[in-house]
Amino acid sequence: LFFTHSFQLLRGWAGFALAGVVLLLTVRAFRRASRQARVPADARFVAADEPEAQQLARLSALADVPAPRLAEVTMGVRNAFVVETPGEPVTLCISRRAVEELPPEQLDAMLAHELFHVAHGDTALVRRLEHVARVVDDRAPSVVADFVLVGVRRMERQRELSADRAAALLTGAP
Fold first, then answer.
1. Which residues lie below 8 Å from residue 97, measured CB to CB, with a gap of 6+?
2. How far is the C-alpha of 58 from the C-alpha of 82, rounded, in Å?
3. DSSP per residue over 87-112, as a string?
4. Distance between CA atoms of 104 and 107, rounded to whole angstroms?
5. Which residues, in sequence order, are CB contacts of 64 under 8 Å at separation 6+?
6. 67-95: per-residue pLDDT in tens?
7. Buried b vs exposed e over 151-166: b needs ≥16 C-beta within 10 Å?
8. What's the mean pLDDT when you consider all of the chain?
9. 131 confidence band (pLDDT: 50, 70, 90)
10. How many CB atoms lie within 10 A of CB 83?
11. What φ, ψ does residue 158 adopt, rounded to 5°?
12. According to the model, what pLDDT value does residue 79 have?
């Protein structure tokens, strides 16, 4: 009876210790998340008097958030993304093709979507989640890694849908 009780107690403490180790590794992974996000070298920072910068300033004022820097990048697709590098101002990068091809209301929607990510710190969160997913994928059993990857993808998807909703509310056009 003594050995059975001791084994159950040991098994309970082992589970508690394992949960603690997993928690510590997760916190460590969040803290050591990659900080390699940089504005592309070919980016052109948009002057405040250009129409795109004025659109962003208007949307920022409506959302009551500071306007990030705006940079145009050369890409083969219409796209926009946010770059948050520690120690530097937040930069919203938009492809030249998007600026040239999208009508003003669609450009507003794209800028408002990215502005939501800026306002809620989604870039840093997603960067850290991706880092955790890579660490788990490299070090954990496949069942655990698959579970974590599904959770990360769901959270990223939720942030994107939230940004879409906020942009529709901010611009008044779904």
1. 75, 76, 77, 78
2. 18
3. TS--EEEEEHHHHHHS-HHHHHHHHH
4. 5
5. none
6. 999 999 998 899 999 988 778 888 999 99
7. ebeeebeebeeebeeb
8. 83
9. confident
10. 20
11. -65, -40
12. 92
DSSP tag of 142: H
Strands 91-95, 69-73: pairing kind: parallel
User: Residue 34: what pLDDT?
Assistant: 44
Residue with tokens 């974590």, as numbered in its chain: 148
Q: How far apart are CA 91 and CA 69, in angstroms?
A: 5
pLDDT (0 to 100) of residue 93: 93
b or e along 6-33 (b: 16 or more beta carbons within 10 Å of the residue's beta carbon)?
eeeeeeeeeeeeeeeeeeeeeeebeeeb
**Which residues, in sequence order, are bridge partners of residue 95?**
73
